[in-house]
Design brief:
By secondary structure, the protein is α/β, with parallel strands linked by helices. The chain contains eleven helices and eight strands. It has one domain: TIM Barrel, CATH 3.20.20.70. The radius of gyration is 17 Å and the shape is globular.
Length: about 250
């Protein structure tokens, strides 16, 4: 079978938060993250990711519906595990809700959600999202303890935090790069074995994306900051297209 069979395609979700960060720097309506979502859809991106933070530092409440209405792409709503965000997610019915840590005490040492430590707090939130037909994703470190918690909680998806990998890459620490890739690959395989769809993201760039994209079990990468930064120089269309090409090269 060809390597390019559709089932092997790695989806690219584009996080458009930082278009809103620039907009908010002047408090007006420009640049509009909705226009970014339309461009992502036009160049064949597979999804839009947006994080409605408790402090609303980038995406605002009113953006969510506009983003959902603008394209047919699935919206992956990143949210803290709070009652406020749960109510917003239930009101908007995004395709997926990705639970992320916002407070220091909700993070593991490397930065993913401490699903294992917050098990009791997360359980009712995961259940309510799933009962509403929203796919639940947990943004965790690629660690067995966190994956076990995701399995127990009944998450549909785990998104592995690639921040440590990205740092090791920047530092030129090849031993650490290798060990980070191995733990992500091992946990992706274990996730699939347990019926959970593995995704990955955070800190991915043109320089570091390919070894992650080559992990065959991964179904989706979510990439934001670097793409929006590149868009300043080469345009969002071209930035997304290049990332897509780099991902496809290794599949
Ligand atoms: N995935 C999740 C769950 C995130 O919270 C973020 C943003 O921090 C990303 C992916 C994208 O990370 P980046 O903006 O570094 O590409």
């Amino acid at each position: 079978m060809s390597n390019h069979h559709a089932s092997h395609k790695l989806r690219l979700g584009v996080n458009i938060d930082h278009v809103a960060t620039i907009r908010n720097a002047r408090g007006g309506d420009h640049p509009d993250p909705v226009r970014a979502a339309e461009i992502v859809a036009a160049v064949g991106g597979d999804g839009i990711t947006a994080h409605l933070r408790e402090d609303r530092r980038h995406i605002r409440d009113g953006d969510l519906q506009r983003i959902q209405d603008a394209t047919g792409l699935p919206l992956n709503l990143e949210m803290a595990a709070t009652d406020e965000m749960l109510a917003i997610a239930l009101a908007h019915s995004p395709h997926a809700a990705c639970i992320v840590p916002e407070k220091r005490e909700e993070r593991t040492t490397e930065g993913g959600l401490d699903a294992a430590g917050l098990d009791n707090h997360l359980a009712p939130i995961v259940t309510q999202l799933r009962d509403a037909g929203i796919r639940v994703s947990l943004f965790i470190e690629a660690e067995e303890r966190q994956l076990d918690a995701a399995i127990r909680l009944g998450a549909d998806i785990v998104e592995f935090h690639t921040g440590e990998y990205a740092h090791a890459h920047l530092d030129g620490d090849s031993a650490k790069v290798t060990s980070e890739l191995k733990r992500i690959a091992d946990m992706a395989a274990l996730a699939v074995k347990n019926g959970i769809e593995p995704h990955a993201g955070h800190g991915l760039t043109y320089e570091n994306v390919q070894p992650i994209a080559a992990i065959p079990q991964l179904a989706e990468l979510n990439i934001g900051h670097y793409l929006i930064g590149e868009a300043i120089f080469i345009g969002l269309e071209e930035a997304v297209r290049r990332m897509r090409d780099l991902m496809d090269e290794v599949r």
